[in-house]
Design brief:
By secondary structure, the chain is α/β, with parallel strands linked by helices. The chain is 37% helix and 12% strand. The radius of gyration is 23 Å and the shape is globular.
Length: 541
């Protein structure tokens, strides 16, 4: 569900395992409380997640076969790439902890190596990361055959199109993109909805020998967790959802869901600028003067035309908006963003000041130019995981999942008018978010034709679900976490006062609650508001 920079997937010695052929399909899970059908166990093989380092000898990898189409469980299969970090203390092992980082389309394979969870969790659980179907190493959904073919389409899309020409070019490119998906993606494109990911997850849960599921899902991964709780409530042992979607809204009204995502980005941006001004310069490089007014002036200036830096690099409205959104995802990116904003402000202000005789014309500091150039780098308008050594080194699972889950109008021109309306209430991110939708209008396997789980979400689990929400989460509006807690039949919300997307691993206080929940099945007290360990703008030494 994120529009963020795609991260290259680490190439490991274990990748050779992924090339295995499909194994015989196993039986579909038995419905309801009846005895579970047996499935083939996971065939783990030792692997080293980082061949450049000595093998720690605590990791295993596998490719587990699941039905492509659960209506035909004995038909074609899809291989799910899995990695586990074995529990450090086998004598105290509780089970497996499955992990999903979101996206949709985020690779979870290397999440077996994550340090987000404390020692007690690592001692007692096998941490299991996996790439969902169609993602990364798990039979990646591919709309193109080469990177050059993909660039010929994707490079024509403008992330924040404003002019008639930009809008027409972008709409045309999205239609060419979905045409390519129709030609090249194969039958997998019909089976990318979250309900199938959850069926795969339940099969993997049984395949590792766990009677009940332990799961931590982040961002879009919270929909996987909520759907699992809705479909298999009696199979939940401990379930953490961090950085939450609104399941009911997302699965019933994609347009309204995206509009509310835009308002969430605006809330996060406003708080970021407020905290920057409170910190002041030099803690926040953009902190002198009225940060809100300075930011709005930059955005509005870019809406009219790009800003050309002294070295000829151009900052566009699309690159600017994408980089600001990207930085709001993580506190570690927010002080650098302030430097880039201040540098761009200086570049824009210098000619005006010289023309008015307020300052002599002088070369802009080269260091400032480099800071400003960060805002000229385009952020991909969809998460596409990089694949190793393939002619087309990405996958198209982001839209593969979104377009099957979220209902959208079938006319892509609808989003042109929506962009105008959303821009009035969300001036920085309304148009940006609106143009994430046209692709799904012409997607060859849209939500209206897909098998989807649309609720009810309120089935009671034995242990309350642990819901975590940041007050100023840009990508998943805090109100979504509040709604997630209400929609689930048995859940507790813990909040964190931070501008960032997702919170586990960012707060020692939260880490203690997470450990107690996973190890002891002790739900946290409701209504807690925690602080992160770090400050986006720490004091200058």
């Amino acid at each position: 569900m994120s529009r963020i920079t795609s991260a290259a997937l680490a190439v490991t010695s274990a990748l050779a395992l992924v090339a295995g052929s499909a194994a015989a399909a196993v039986a579909a899970p038995a419905p309801g409380p009846a005895a579970e059908a047996k499935v083939a166990p996971v065939d783990w093989k030792p692997c080293n997640p980082d061949p450049t380092q000595p093998d720690p000898k605590i990791y295993d990898c596998a490719v587990y076969q699941v039905p492509l189409d659960y209506d035909h469980p004995n038909g074609e299969t899809v291989g799910i790439a899995m990695m586990r970090r074995r529990a450090s203390d086998p004598s105290k092992r509780i089970g497996s902890l499955f992990l999903n980082p979101g996206g949709p389309g985020g690779s979870g394979y290397m999440w077996a190596t994550t340090a987000r969870f404390g020692k007690d969790v690592q001692d007692r659980f096998d941490q299991v990361g996996f790439d969902p179907r169609g993602v990364g190493l798990s039979n990646p959904l591919k709309c193109f055959t080469t990177d050059e073919e993909a660039a010929g389409v994707n490079d024509r899309m403008v992330g924040v199109p404003v002019t008639k020409a930009e809008i027409a070019q972008t709409i045309d490119a999205t239609e060419d993109y979905t045409d390519a998906c129709s030609r090249n993606a194969g039958p997998l494109i019909e089976h990318m909805s979250t309900i199938n990911v959850v069926r795969d997850l339940d099969r993997m849960r049984r395949a590792v020998g766990d009677a009940k599921l332990n799961f931590a899902g982040f961002s879009y991964g919270t929909l996987i967790g909520a759907t699992y709780a809705g479909m298999y409530p009696d199979k939940v042992r401990a379930l953490i959802v961090d950085g939450n979607v609104d399941p009911n809204l997302r699965m019933h009204n994609g347009v309204e869901y995206d509009r509310q995502r835009a308002t969430g980005f605006e809330v996060a941006l406003a708080e970021y600028l407020k905290r920057c001004q409170t910190a002041g310069a030099p803690r926040c490089a953009f902190g002198d003067g009225d940060t809100r007014a300075k930011f709005d002036a930059l955005r509005d200036r870019l809406r009219t035309s790009p800003v050309t830096l002294p070295d000829g690099t151009q900052v566009t409205l699309s690159s600017f908006t994408g980089q600001v959104a990207n930085a709001l995802y993580a506190q570690s990116r927010q002080a650098p963003l302030a430097k880039s904003l201040q540098a761009l402000h200086s570049v824009v202000q210098a000619p005006a000041a010289a023309a008015q005789g307020l300052a002599p014309a002088a070369p802009v500091d080269p260091a400032a130019v480099e800071d400003a150039k960060v805002l000229a780098t385009e952020v991909p308008n969809a998460l596409r995981e990089a694949l190793p050594e393939t002619p087309y080194s990405a996958d198209d699972s982001y839209y593969g999942v979104n377009c099957q889950d979220k209902p959208y109008p079938s006319n892509p021109r609808t989003f042109v008018n929506l962009a105008k309306a959303w821009e009035k209430e969300s001036p920085t991110f309304g148009r940006y978010q609106a143009f994430d939708g046209p692709t799904c209008s012409t997607w060859p396997a849209p939500a209206r034709d897909a098998e989807r789980f649309t609720g009810p979400w309120g089935k009671k689990t034995a242990t309350p679900v642990m819901v975590i929400g940041n007050l100023y989460d840009p990508a998943t509006n805090y109100t979504f976490s509040q709604r997630m807690q209400r929609q689930l039949g048995n859940a507790v919300l813990v909040s964190v006062d931070v501008v960032e997307h997702c919170a586990v691993g960012r707060s020692k206080e939260l880490g203690k609650l997470v450990t107690d929940y996973l190890v002891n099945q002790k739900a946290p007290a409701a209504g807690q508001l925690l602080k992160p360990d770090a400050d986006a703008f720490p004091p200058v030494a």
